[in-house]
Structure formats: C-alpha cells, structure tokens
Amino acid sequence: MSIEKFIEDQISKAMAEGEFDNLPGKGRPLDLNAYFQTPEDLRLCYSILKNGNFAPPEVDLLKEIESLKQQLASTGDEEQRQRLAKLITDKTLTFKMLVEKRQR
Q1: d(CA 53, CA 56)
Q2: N or C: which end of the chain has fewer CB within 10 A?
Q3: What pLDDT is recorded for position 6?
C-alpha cells in the first residue's frame, strides 16, 4: 500500500467517524491575508507557532490593523474615522519596522 493510499484511507475513516465535524471555523472561508503578508522566510516558523497558540507580534499587529480597517469602514463619525485612520497608519508603520528589523 502506498503512503498516499494510506493517508487517503485514514482521512476517509476520520470523516466517516465525524472527526472533522466540530472543527473551529467550519463553514467559514480561510483568512490567509496575515499569512501572505508575512515575509516568506518566516511563514513556516510562524505557522508552527500559530498551531501552538502563540502568535508573534507581527501577526497580532496585522489582525489589529484588519480590525481597525473594518471599524473604519463601518463608522460614520468623522472624528472617529480620523482617529482610526491614524491608528491604522501608526500600526502599519510599526509592522513595517518589525518586518524590516527581522530582515536584517
């Protein structure tokens, strides 16, 4: 039996037993923005850390920036929009500085 066939059999068995029924995020699309915005040479390391429920500062910043962008899109208050835009700019700059520091 080939390794591919063995893996397929194990996945089929797990599906039949309902092993994949209650996974977090089931039915929602994958958000890969943070993954592709992370420098290529750090992606594997960050994926391992994420699987261990540890997120590096860059990933947390990207999540914060995305959340702020969503808030900005949904608010009509001009003062709030300006405050959010400044926060987005500041956090984006911080993110870029962290990435640049890691590239050195």
Answers
A1: 10
A2: C
A3: 92
Q: For the beta carbon of residue 95, count every other beta carbon within 10 angstroms.
A: 19
CB 65 within 8 A of CB 91: yes
pLDDT in tens, 47-69: 888 788 887 788 889 999 999 99
Distance CA 60, CA 38 (A): 11
Burial class of residue 104 in the structure, from the number of CB atoms within 10 Å of its CB (0-12 exposed, 13-18 middle, 19+ buried): exposed
User: What is the rounded average pLDDT of the residues 36-46?
Assistant: 83
What's the rounded Cα separation, in Å, for the pair 47 and 41?
A: 11
Alpha helices in 1-104 (DSSP H): 3-16, 33-37, 43-51, 57-74, 78-103
Per the structure block, which two tokens stand in for 81? 């929009």
Which position has the higher pLDDT, 74 or 102? 74
